Amino acid sequence: MKSTALTDKHIALGAKMVPFAGFNMPVYYEGIKIEHNTVRDHLGIFDVSHMGEFTVTGNDALNFLQYVTSNDVSALHTGKIQYTCFPNDQGGIVDDLLVYCHDKNSYFLVVNASNIEKDWDWINKLAKNYDVELENISDQIAQVAVQGPKALKALQGLTDVPLDDIPYYTFTSVHFSGIPDVLISATGYTGSGGFELYCQNEYMPEIWDKVLEAGAPFGIKPIGLGARDTLRLEVGFCLYGNDIDDTTSPIEAGLGWITKFNKDFMMKDYHLKLKEEGVTKKLVGIELIDKGIPRQHMIILNRDEEIIGEITSGTQSPYTGRNIALGYVLKAFSKADTELIVQSRNKLLQAKVVKLPFYKKIT
Amino acid sequence: MNIPEELKYTKDHEWIRESGEQTVIGITDFAQKELGDIVYIEIETEGEDLAKEDVFGTIEAVKTVSDMFMPITGQVIERNPALDDTPELVNTDPYGEGWMIKTTIVDRAEFKDLLTAEDYRQLLDE
Fold first, then answer.
1. ipTM value of the model?
2. Which range marks the domain in which residue A340 is found?
3. B42 and A315 in contact by Cβ < 8 A?
4. Residue A345 has what pLDDT?
5. Which of B35, B37, B38 to mutate to test the interface with A (most CBs of A within 10 A)?
């Protein structure tokens, strides 16, 4: 099992460690609920060094990424970031990822830990006819996410660059608490705002300590992967392997907004047809009316108790106390307020379709 | 790890307290720590006669669901109503306010097969 640059820190903090995507990772330190709510109300720091990082450079970097990703990379300019996916050749998704644009010949990709090898093989296979150089730097790069409403105030003391000047989904390279070339981006997977920091492994333990120190007056806590999952689910963000996978189209997953048809890309015609002619199933937000907690793989029925779908992610929302889920249902049942039944083991629980997100930050 | 000496235990991490003609049953401190934040407890066996090792309820943490098993044979005569609104009592006081059910006792000999505090401590050490 792999360690990250911060594994020793987690163990020293008494975290409950679990294997995740081949890494020894903290699932929680104190508890998922308190960590979740700390991020919503104050500030948290997550080790997400398990995430993969690739670089794409060369004269064809833009053209290559236009073909292998679903979003319109030409819309990016220096310092901008885009959420996108790698469509596969079967109509599904290889992975979802972030594309950071240094310039038209140089991009930085951040992919899911569980898909690093699959993604790497996939893009190398497709790169043959392009003048691009690909590099997998996942093992050298560490990443932390500093998330929550106090992130800007807490981090500002550690760098001279005004963090106010980094809009959502942009990045810059900064001197951070004396460490040069730390990439900071206004991104995250929590819906509570904040930043993500990338640097070489060797510098990350110092950054971790400095952020915890600077965040102490703001109530910072280290946050495990358990709360990372409940936070993302509360705001309706997809998790690869749960809500999207090799068999789901981004159109079905509500990711039409990252699927742009003003360019050619892998399986474009298939996804365009889905968009124009309509999907048969759709990913929706679901809330239980009855008591109980929806879980991945539970079957969804209509009021006549016919099978119409399946839960892909579910939990009790720590911040709202509601029992929430994402799941695919037949399109006819995808409108808000449609009554559904979730089959929880031997029980049938009343539920309804609700608009996403389940939680929205009040600004 | 808190393992009270006066209780008996199961391999599935339940504890049982003998109290006259009745028992009180819950899950151990180890179990609640492993589960993490407990958010929902479902016990729908009140009034039922259950055999040793039957499922008497389920416990849901943020990330997982787990069944709870009868340490002995008996009738479920009461469930802890406080857990409906405050399931976190199982985290904060697993041997006290976080109890799960009370049962009758059918066969006292079954207690001999249960783990002592010492046995249970050894099980956790393995």
1. 0.76
2. 256-354
3. no
4. 82
5. B37
